[in-house]
C-alpha cells in the first residue's frame, strides 16, 4: 500500500518531504528491499546489531565528495584558495583526518580542537585559530606550534597576544576579524555578522585597529577575516555584500601602506535539512571573486556544516510508542543530550525508518521524543511516520554537524558511539562511553572518607 502524502507542519506553507524525497536528495542513503536503510553499502540494522544505539554514523564518501566539490568550485573560479575545515562542526579525529587527506586544513576555536587537529594529522601550517576568547595558555600553544594564523577579534585581544608573543620572543601571524554589519538572515542564535553580535570589530574601526596591529611587537598582520553566520540559506546576497565591503577595506588598508596578503572568507554556507535551497559552492565562489578576485590576495575558507552535516545520521531505537489523548509519542533512546539542535534552534531534521516494510507502511502523525526529563527533549512534532513498535530503528538525517560535537551527558547518559562507513565496511571511530568512564574523575570530599551513608 502506498504511503499517503505527508501533511504540512504547523506554520509551514509546504508539506514535509516524503521518504522518497529525503532519499533522493541524499546520495549516500538507499533503501534496500531486504536489508533496509543503508549508508553507502552498509545496512544500518547491521551497525545497530554490532554497536548498539544511539550511534552516530558518518559516510566517508559524502565527506570526500563535498570537500572536492568545494575545492573544485574555488579552482574553477580562478581563486588561489585554501580550505580550513571548521572542526567545531564535527571534531572526530577520523573525520578531520579524512579531510586532511583531501588537502583541507583546520579552523579551531579552543586548545582541545587545536590538539585534536594536530592529532588527526593536520599540519600546523594549515591551522587557523578563531574565537573571541583565546586564553593566554591557548595563545602560547598556538605560537609554540607555529600555526598558520590567529584571528584577532578585538583591540584587547591584540594587546594580549602581543604581550604573549613578545614574551616568547616570537611573532604571531594574525588576521583581523571584521564585522561587516551584514544580516545573513539566519537563525538569531547563529548569526555573527551584525554589530550587535560579539564577534569581530566594526568595519568602520578596522583601519585604525589594523594600523595598531602593525605597530604592536610580536604581531605579524597578514590580512582580514570575516564570518557572517551559520546555515545561510537565503541566496548569495549577504555574502556578496560582505565581500564587497571587505574588498573596499583591503584597498583602504593598502593605500595606507599596510600589508594585506590574505582574506579569510569564513564559512556558513547552508545545507538542505527540509526544503531550504541554499547557494551552491559555485555561487559562493562567484561572490568571493566579485568582491576580492582582483586584489591578488590568498583566499581562505572555513566550512564546517556544509561538508559534515549531510554526511551523518543519528541511528536510534524505539523504546515504546505512547498514545495519550489525541497524541502519539514515539519515544526513542536518543535524546536532546545527543542531538541538541531541535531543542536549541527549533531545527528540522528528516527522519526515516530503517525497516523496508515500515518505509512502505501507512503514516500517521507522531511526536518523536527522547527519554530526558525535559519537555524540550523533542525531535519533531506531528511528523507523519509509520507504526514503530519497540525495537524499531529510525535514522535522524543530516546530523553530521553540530550533533556529536554538541552532545553532553545530561541525565547521566553516556556519550553515544560514533561509526564511519566506507563502501561496504564500517568501523567504530569512537567507543560508546561506559558508565565507569562517565563517573571517572568524580570523588567525595576528603572529609567524608570513612563515613557510611547508610
From TrEMBL:
Swiss-Prot/TrEMBL keywords: Amino-acid biosynthesis, Decarboxylase, Lyase, Lysine biosynthesis, Pyridoxal phosphate
Residues bound to substrate: 305, 341, 345, 374, 402
Gene Ontology molecular function, alphabetical: diaminopimelate decarboxylase activity
Positions that bind pyridoxal 5'-phosphate: 268, 302-305, 402
Cofactor list: pyridoxal 5'-phosphate
Domain of life: Bacteria
Record PTM N6-(pyridoxal phosphate)lysine, positions in chain: 88
PANTHER family documented for this protein: DIAMINOPIMELATE DECARBOXYLASE, GROUP IV DECARBOXYLASE
Family as reported in the entry's similarity comment: Belongs to the Orn/Lys/Arg decarboxylase class-II family. LysA subfamily.
Protein name: Diaminopimelate decarboxylase
Organism whose genome encodes this protein: Roseococcus pinisoli
Amino acid at each position: 500500500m502506498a504511503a499517503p502524502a505527508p501533511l504540512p507542519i504547523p506554520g509551514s506553507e509546504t508539506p514535509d518531504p516524503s521518504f522518497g524525497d529525503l532519499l533522493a536528495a541524499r546520495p549516500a542513503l538507499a533503501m534496500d528491499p531486504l536489508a533496509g536503510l543503508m549508508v553507502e553499502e552498509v545496512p544500518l540494522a547491521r551497525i545497530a546489531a554490532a554497536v548498539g544505539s544511539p550511534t552516530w554514523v558518518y559516510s566517508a564518501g559524502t565527506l570526500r565528495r563535498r570537500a572536492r566539490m568545494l575545492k573544485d568550485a574555488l579552482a574553477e573560479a580562478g581563486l588561489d584558495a585554501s580550505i580550513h575545515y571548521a572542526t567545531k562542526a564535527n571534531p572526530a579525529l577520523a573525520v578531520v583526518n579524512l579531510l586532511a587527506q583531501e588537502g583541507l586544513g583546520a579552523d579551531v576555536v579552543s586548545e582541545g580542537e587545536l590538539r585534536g587537529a594536530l592529532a588527526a594529522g593536520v599540519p600546523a601550517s594549515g591551522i587557523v585559530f578563531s574565537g573571541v576568547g583565546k586564553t593566554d595558555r591557548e595563545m602560547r600553544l598556538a605560537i609554540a606550534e607555529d600555526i598558520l594564523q590567529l584571528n584577532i577579534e578585538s583591540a584587547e585581544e591584540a594587546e594580549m597576544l602581543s604581550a604573549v608573543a613578545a614574551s616568547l620572543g616570537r611573532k604571531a601571524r594574525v588576521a583581523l576579524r571584521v564585522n561587516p554589519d551584514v544580516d545573513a538572515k539566519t537563525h538569531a542564535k547563529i548569526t555573527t555578522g551584525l554589530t550587535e553580535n560579539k564577534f569581530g570589530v566594526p568595519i568602520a574601526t578596522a583601519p585604525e585597529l589594523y594600523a595598531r596591529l602593525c605597530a604592536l611587537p610580536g604581531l605579524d598582520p597578514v590580512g582580514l577575516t570575516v564570518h557572517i553566520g551559520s546555515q545561510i540559506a537565503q541566496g548569495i546576497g549577504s555574502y556578496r555584500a560582505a565581500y564587497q565591503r571587505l574588498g573596499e577595506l583591503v584597498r583602504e588598508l593598502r593605500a595606507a601602506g599596510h600589508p594585506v596578503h590574505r582574506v579569510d572568507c569564513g564559512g556558513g554556507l547552508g545545507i538542505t535539512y527540509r526544503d531550504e535551497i541554499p547557494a551552491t559552492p559555485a555561487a559562493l565562489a562567484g561572490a568571493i571573486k566579485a568582491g576580492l578576485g582582483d586584489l591578488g590576495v590568498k583566499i581562505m575558507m572555513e566550512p564546517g556544516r556544509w561538508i559534515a552535516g549531510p554526511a551523518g545520521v543519528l541511528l536510534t531505537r524505539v523504546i515504546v510508542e505512547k498514545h495519550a489523548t489525541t497524541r502519539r509519542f514515539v519515544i526513542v533512546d536518543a535524546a536532546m543530550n545527543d542531538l541538541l539542535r531541535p531543542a536549541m534552534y527549533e531545527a528540522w531534521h528528516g527522519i526515516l525508518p530503517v525497516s523496508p516494510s515500515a518505509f512502505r507502511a501507512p503514516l500517521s502523525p507522531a511526536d518523536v521524543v527522547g527519554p530526558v526529563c525535559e519537555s524540550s527533549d523533542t525531535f519533531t512534532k506531528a511528523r507523519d511516520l509509520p507504526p514503530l513498535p519497540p525495537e524499531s530503528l529510525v535514522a535522524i538525517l543530516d546530523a553530521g554537524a553540530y550533533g556529536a560535537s554538541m552532545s553532553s551527558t545530561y541525565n547521566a547518559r553516556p556519550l553515544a558511539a560514533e561509526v564511519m562507513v566506507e563502501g561496504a565496511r564500517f568501523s567504530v571511530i569512537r567507543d560508546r562511553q561506559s558508565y565507569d568512564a562517565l563517573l571517572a574523575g568524580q570523588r567525595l570530599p576528603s572529609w567524608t572518607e570513612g563515613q557510611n551513608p547508610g
